[in-house]
């Protein structure tokens, strides 16, 4: 019997249920997949707690890898037996499952050298890192980057990518253990925000200048420190809200702090064009196949342990990537 994690009301991790489901034949434009591994992302908690409203009951999870079992009418981009991975948003919701129907359009064929586990751990994080490093700011040697959540899945990929480009990386972390992980993956400096003033330390590290770019996936609690860490005409990339949504602010604040720039990108807008998505996927796959970027899978869970996985994720106990093994 096919198993899936579903929820019938929003709330804490306890609302998640592991249950039997029926999976029929794929309709037009769909495929039936057998999952091998499923990605665990912080965005999953936003669906579960109601930050991202969706009709209920519903499945959860937007990223997984596996094998194509059957094709619906009109599907030409993949074939039965293909090894694939995918990520998305509403159109791929329901990844926490052993088998499922999914639109064929988001599927990405996996190179032979990329395992199912690696794919589930890096498709969303890898594509996110790719657009952050290659589509928003023209990073070059000598630039400085403040990277929040530096020991997280995206953080570890971005750190390694930045070092390939000659960028100096300052990473924020919550523990000394995470600081060690971040430094091992390319961070030149780490700041423990549990007891250090982030903006003050950034200014000390940069000789009072500040950084070219801040990548902030934390949100509410780090917003002001992020702005105060930027150099004149620096760029803040708000890429997540792990601590809560950033409160409304007067844009005049950006002028007062040095004519700063700010953007709030979303992965969906950088992979909407199939050609751009393919280019970003090829670039991250190439780095991984060549060993220039390593994907750290530091937590593995059984699908029936989704409640515990969400608890671990929200309590910031995890480092690197987390996946479910099917």
From TrEMBL:
EC number annotated for this UniProt entry: 1.6.5.5
InterPro entries, per the entry: ADH-like_C (IPR013149), ADH-like_N (IPR013154), ER (IPR020843), GroES-like_sf (IPR011032), NAD(P)-bd_dom_sf (IPR036291), QOR-like (IPR047618), Quin_OxRdtase/zeta-crystal_CS (IPR002364)
Name the UniProt record assigns to this protein: Quinone oxidoreductase
SUPFAM superfamilies: GroES-like, NAD(P)-binding Rossmann-fold domains
Annotated organism of origin: Collimonas arenae
Gene Ontology CC annotations of this record: cytosol
Entry's Gene Ontology molecular function annotations: mRNA 3'-UTR AU-rich region binding; NADPH binding; quinone reductase (NADPH) activity; zinc ion binding
Keywords annotated in UniProt: NADP, Oxidoreductase
Domain Enoyl reductase (ER): start-end pairs: 11-324
């Amino acid at each position: 019997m096919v198993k899936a994690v579903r929820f019938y009301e929003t709330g804490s991790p306890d609302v998640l249920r592991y249950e039997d489901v029926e999976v029929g034949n794929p309709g037009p434009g769909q495929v039936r997949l057998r999952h091998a591994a499923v990605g665990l992302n912080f965005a999953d908690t936003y669906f579960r707690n109601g930050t991202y409203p969706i009709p209920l009951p519903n499945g959860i999870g937007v990223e997984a890898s596996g094998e194509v079992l059957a094709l619906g009418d009109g599907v030409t981009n993949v074939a039965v037996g293909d090894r694939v991975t995918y990520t998305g948003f509403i159109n791929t919701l329901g990844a926490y499952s052993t088998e499922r129907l999914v639109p064929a359009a988001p599927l990405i064929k996996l190179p032979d050298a990329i395992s199912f586990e690696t794919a589930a751990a890096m498709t969303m994080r890898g594509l996110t890192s790719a657009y952050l490093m290659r589509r928003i700011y023209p990073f070059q040697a000598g630039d400085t980057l403040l990277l929040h959540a530096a020991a997280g899945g995206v953080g570890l990929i971005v750190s390694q990518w930045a070092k390939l480009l000659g960028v100096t990386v300052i990473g924020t972390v919550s523990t000394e253990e995470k600081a060690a992980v971040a430094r091992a993956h390319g961070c030149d400096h780490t700041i423990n925000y549990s007891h250090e003033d982030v903006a003050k330390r950034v200014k000390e590290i940069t000789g009072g200048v500040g950084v070219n770019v801040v990548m902030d996936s934390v949100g509410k609690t780090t917003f002001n420190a992020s702005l105060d860490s930027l150099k004149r005409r620096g760029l803040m990339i708000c890429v997540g809200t792990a601590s809560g949504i950033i409160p409304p602010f007067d844009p005049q604040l950006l002028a007062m702090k040095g004519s700063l720039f700010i953007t709030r990108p979303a992965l969906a807008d950088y992979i909407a064009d199939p050609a751009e998505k393919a280019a970003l996927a090829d670039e991250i796959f190439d780095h991984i196949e060549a060993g220039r970027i390593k994907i750290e899978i530091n937590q593995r869970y059984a699908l029936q342990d989704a409640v515990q996985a969400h608890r671990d994720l929200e309590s910031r106990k995890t480092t690197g990537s987390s996946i479910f093994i099917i």
